[in-house]
Write a structure and sequence with these properties.
mainly alpha, 3 domains, two-stranded antiparallel sheet, 9 helices, coiled coil
Length: 247
């Protein structure tokens, strides 16, 4: 935090705070390994651990970003090979069970293999109900859907006019955001929630103490006076929840 200069732009200030948090987390908190699947090899787990480490640092520099992307491909390829080998082994065991008359074990393996299949959520329907499959069509549909959420159903600019009633008078001098307000906001964040696209959780912000909250306070005031926000603040993650008939 000490290398954050008052002359930094809003974007630079926000990026420095993000980098400081991630570097501190990387140095003090060991990466959490998820429950191991029966078919994942130790080699794949080691690659996944390294990928998890680089994920914390991928926005620190272009070099880390490139390493992270390359490792993501390696992990997927290795995991896919592990699963193919495991499925082949299970099929051979099921076939062997049927050949020797052990139908209970054979059908148990077949049932387990069926449960391993999970529907992929890489398609979406357009307004006419047609299934879209290409990435460009899907992105376009999501953009169209999200944009429609902020439009006036009547086709006018009624929703924009509503902002006039909540905006401060034009001649009012903007007051600084209080440090106590920032502290209250950070402390009131709910814990054990999924992070946004930057990977920073409420627990990380709360554990940063006064040095971090002071910098966030300065950043918020800078954004308030400049009338803009860091690029990362405008990003969000969409989680599609399929209906039963779409699976």
């Amino acid at each position: 935090m000490k290398d954050i200069e008052p002359t930094f732009s809003l974007e630079e200030h926000a990026k420095k705070i993000e980098q400081a948090i991630k570097i501190t987390v990387e140095a003090t908190i060991p990466a959490k390994r998820t429950t191991k699947k029966t078919w994942i090899s130790e080699e794949t787990l080691k690659l996944a651990d390294e990928k998890r480490r680089l994920k914390q640092l991928k926005n620190v520099s272009l070099e880390y970003t490139q390493q992270y992307k390359g490792l993501c491909k390696k992990v997927k390829r290795s995991a896919r090979q592990d699963k193919e080998h495991w499925i082949q082994d299970q099929c051979e065991q099921a076939e062997k069970g049927l050949n020797i008359g052990n139908t209970r074990e054979a059908y148990g393996l077949i049932k387990m293999l069926r449960k391993e299949f999970v529907s992929r959520l890489n398609v979406i329907r357009n307004q006419e109900g047609t299934m879209l499959q290409t990435k460009d069509d899907i992105k376009r549909r999501w953009t169209q859907y999200c944009s429609s959420l902020y439009k006036d159903p009547g086709g006018g600019n009624g929703m924009i006019k509503e902002l006039v009633y909540i905006a401060p008078p034009e001649d009012e001098v903007p007051q600084d955001i209080l440090y106590s307000e920032v502290q209250t906001a950070i402390n009131s964040l709910k814990r054990n929630k999924s992070p946004g696209s930057d990977g920073i959780t409420a627990e990380m912000l709360q554990a940063g103490g006064e040095p971090l909250s002071r910098q966030i306070h300065k950043l918020c005031n800078k954004a308030w006076h400049e009338g803009t926000i860091p690029e990362e603040w405008g990003k969000s993650i969409l989680v599609p929840i399929p209906k039963k008939g779409d699976l």
